[in-house]
Design goal:
mainly alpha; Helicase, Ruva Protein, domain 3
Length: 53
């Protein structure tokens, strides 16, 4: 439904839905030794929607 989609997108500051390719580098980093010192974090990957609330 186009209206529902537009309403959903209006709540995301980036005004678009993320792509799988955009989260890939983050997944690679988290799975690599480079992230060994990182602990107890919550990473939001939501186009700024969390900040908008």
């Amino acid at each position: 439904d186009p209206r529902t989609r537009e309403r959903f997108l209006s709540k995301i500051p980036a005004r678009r839905i993320g792509e799988a390719a955009e989260i890939g580098p983050l997944v690679v980093y988290l799975a690599s030794p480079a992230s060994d010192y990182m602990t107890g974090q919550t990473l939001y990957f939501d186009g700024g929607q969390t900040v908008a609330w």
